[in-house]
Amino acid sequence: MLPLSLLKTAQNHPMLVELKNGETYNGHLVSCDNWMNINLREVICTSRDGDKFWRMPECYIRGSTIKYLRIPDEIIDMVKEEVVSKGRGRGGMQQQKQQKGRGIGGTGRGVFGGRGRGGIPGSGRGQQEKKPGRQAVRS
Questions:
Q1: Reported confidence tier of residue 133, pLDDT bands at 50, 70, 90
Q2: Assuming Cys at both sites, which of 43, 98, 133, 134 could form a disulfide with 27, CB separation 3.0 to 4.6 Å?
Q3: Which is nearest to 114 in space by CA: 101, 95, 125, 127?
């Protein structure tokens, strides 16, 4: 289970975010991106000492400042169910690679045997013309 898939599943659910500076944010996850930047709504911010509280309608937290996230157990169970239903799990990518993905025995993009450079000389360029003026000299 990957952290970003867990976060995407946790949208519209409550969570606690602790930052590296010690502040905590409790709120409902609105959205997240690939850098783990998150938007929360109905947020209560607690100072690092725990003596001050702020209520905010929404807030944005940069992913690089996050120390950890607390997510309800039900979200983790939902992600596990999604992984099983998609047929992915351990070894899922090896199974997909065996199927190749390009018709019968095709190799797909970027793998040896595609339409790249190399291969049989002169193939794919029509008739190669010999340049006049230079001939091989044999001794």
A1: low
A2: 43
A3: 101
